[in-house]
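Action item from last week, closing it out:
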Amino acid sequence: MKLTGSLPAAPELSELYRRWQLLYTAVHQSLGRNQRIKVHSQDITNISINDFDEVCQQLQANINAWLQFESFQNIERQLRTQLNRDDEIRVIIETNIVLLHRLPWHLWHFFEDYPKAELALSNHEYASHHVLLKSSAGKVKILAILGNRVGIDIDKDSSLLEALTDAQTTFLVEPSRKTLDEYLWKQDWDILFFAGHSTSLANGEIGEIGINQTENLTIPQLKNALKNAIRRGLQLVIFNSCDGIGLARNLADLNIPQTIVMREAVPDLIAQEFLKHFLIAFAGSKPFYLAVREARERLQGLENEFPCASWLPVIYQNPTTVPTTWLALLGNFGDTKFMGIATKGKIANPKSQLLTVLISIFIVAVSTVGLRYLGVFEKIELQTFDQMLRLRPKEDPEPRLIIVEITEKDIQSRPEKTLGWKSVSDSTLATLLNKLQKYEPRVIGLDIYRDFADPLNKLNPIELPTELGKDNVVVVCKSRDRKYDPQGVKAPKDVPVERQGFTDGVQDPDGIVRRQILMMAQEPPSTCKTPYSLSLQLAARYLFAENIQPEFQKDYVQFGSKVLKRLKPGRSGGYQQGVELGGMQLLVNYRDTDYQRVSLEDILTNKFDPKLLKDKVVIVGVTANTISDTWSTPYSAAQQPYQETPGVLIQAQMVSQVLSAVLDERLILWVLPFWGDMIWICAWSVGGSLIVWCVRSLFDRGWVIVAMVFVLYGVCAIALFQQGLWLPFIPTAFGVVTSGVVVLFIQSRREFSTATHSLRE
């Protein structure tokens, strides 16, 4: 997915950062901390920690205000839609502007909401690096440069590296340029570490390190040696020293996979604590980005003594590479020992081979079902379901329903708008309902909350309570939400509960509305008392006029011979983890079409065809973009740009679903019971693996696996289109592919053993 956004110029942010930088240096100088940079006195005096804290807060507020500009919000909305809180996320800022490299991007509120996201920086230009094949030594090879130590303590750094049991560390203590160059040329290194004095020159364009008390080197002066080290497998460079932005930018030009630097001057203790926590987490098999984030965040506990300590560490990442892991550096990709097929000169017979295959496939199938039970596939299952829905051909509009929409133009043109009214007044609604009744609609649903007194209501010959009192008008309320709305929204006064319907929506974890609630019991504290949804009320009243009586049960609603069965609570279809299936819920079988619509202004000025309203379900609601009643649907992601759907249109989809199911035999989406899903997944896994087993050519076996996945997708799509059955494609495809790979492995082992046996004979 590619998203486009922009950020406006922010000169005040640049000035604020530079003030923060001056204050940061001055504060640390005043505290007398040993820092791994040669600092110069500043023309700032009488600096207090409170002054510095205020600038820190201003900088954080300005960064987040900048990132909240509307021109950038499309990116953030899409990120929050597509990503889960538990995802491991790399956020890479690519720019050649030095100031943007220095900004503390980790203060963006996004990182607070996603605990496994971490920031990295990159230059605009980069390329993939080419690594020569090297043998694994079973140890992580570290070259540690302990440079100029005047005024600082770097012995703790060396002791931390020495404590690594899985590492082979070579220390160069205050080396000469020649010695350092030779070591970079003659050996393979996994990690390059530096501790000592460093700084960034030319406004951050060039990085310089003090390798001893008399020699300073820039990265360009080590260019050839470093390029050789990278080509021979160098994966990570750590500069546990001050002001490393220039160092990282220069290394990025050499396409180093990852670098860790400190963005400003760093006190000894902070450098040591970061290194300690990072090595513990990284060598303890945590992912690289999570190890850096954990080590960085643990510095916050020291910020009473060392202000902004957790702002300092930052990753530089080559976007073409995957972050390394400690196990990968060890060359240890698993200690699994595979049992040979041939034993003591004998080749296993076909029956024992087939038994091995069946046992292996059974284990794969059961594991796949277990992974699905734990919710591993839930997100991608829902996305695949959406994709299949979007593949269906367009349908005709619902002929029995029309929407009277209150558009942005309607709101802006109303006289009450000039008085600060956000929607339309009671007088306008009363006039609208009165006019609608003249054209004999069968039922009217008012999808607008009216739980308050209208301060702008004036004398009007048409009273809203009178119009709401008519038998074919259904009003709305909202059930309580324990977290966000402890009481709910009550229905308009004096409207009996028999003509009320709740409008509660149900969103999946990714924010998309895929289900509708037909009925649910209301909790006693809720001001909304009706057990029926607006969509069910409207559909039932329309069908009642067709002499079709509803029958309401706990697990289903029946209209004549048509039975609408609920999604089973617990685990149902793709919903396997963390989703409430309370009340009577159905999957929404969306129509990929628009509904007949007429605006408020057209009704009030008689600019419409009166035949559109007679004997119809009329839903009155707001589609204006200034009213925050929009929701994501399975069709939102297919629209460019991403578009959410007004709530009144989703209500129309839900009413249409019930009417068309009863009157037109249109499909209601359903799922297999849990045991049915298990049988389906196991059957495909076993059947697919047996087909692969029967194919002789290794090349053909791979294509057979691919072909089976395509066939499976086609079967699932046809079942959804023609029967309304949502089958588990993703876990089944996972089972088919994994089972096929297991068979390929067993067969290749058998063929290898057969060949070896023949050679021995």
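Closing note: Residues 729-760 form the longest helix (32 residues).
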